[in-house]
Write a structure and sequence with these properties.
alpha+beta, 10-stranded antiparallel beta sheet, 1 helix, single chain, 10 strands
């Protein structure tokens, strides 16, 4: 929390209307600082509300069979992170072992999945980072690389390289072709 102290003094040598104007400007500045502080506190509260309880655990705490699901506002599944073992290694940094990550389509079917032996989860940013060979597969694609970074909150990520990808085109049905 940020605290700011603003003071206003009057100068008997200045005209009364100038003092009033300066006092009003001082009040505007004070209000804008209060608004800024409130906005910052609201952002911090929102950020903390997105953070699970893992960051509240002591260093060297070990959890087994951890599942971290993510849902949209209608409680439809978006992703599921499963780790055989998670260890708090410092603050809100967690080492996950034998990790699988599944991403879901809007209808709830699995869109993509990946498995890694070791990944680091930065809970304050909700970022999962793997720095080893990665293989991601879906119904119509496969991708591999030397690592990945995935944002749990936004559902976005990327593969670090060198990387390769293979996309399968769906065969056109006779009814799909245009005359």
């Amino acid at each position: 929390m940020m605290s700011v102290l603003l003071t206003a003094c009057t100068d008997d040598k200045k005209p009364k209307d100038l003092q009033t104007k300066e006092l009003q400007e001082s009040e505007k500045i004070k209000q804008s600082v209060k608004d800024l502080a409130a906005s910052s506190e609201q952002k911090d509260a929102k950020k903390k509300s997105n953070i699970a309880l893992l960051g509240q655990l002591h260093n060297d705490t070990i959890l087994r069979q951890v599942r971290l699901p993510r849902y949209d506002e209608n409680f439809n599944p978006l992703s599921l992170l499963h780790a055989e073992r998670m260890e708090v290694i410092g603050g809100e940094t967690i080492e996950a072992r034998d990790v699988s990550l599944e991403l879901y389509d809007q209808d709830g079917s699995v869109q993509a999945r990946t498995k890694v032996r070791r990944a680091i989860y930065h809970e304050n940013d909700a970022i999962l980072k793997a720095e080893e060979a990665i293989y991601i597969s879906g119904e119509d694609f496969k991708a591999s690389g030397t690592g990945m970074v995935y944002d749990i909150n936004t559902g976005q990520g990327f593969i670090t390289g060198p990387a390769s990808s293979l996309f399968y085109l769906k065969a056109l049905k006779a009814s799909d072709t245009k005359p």
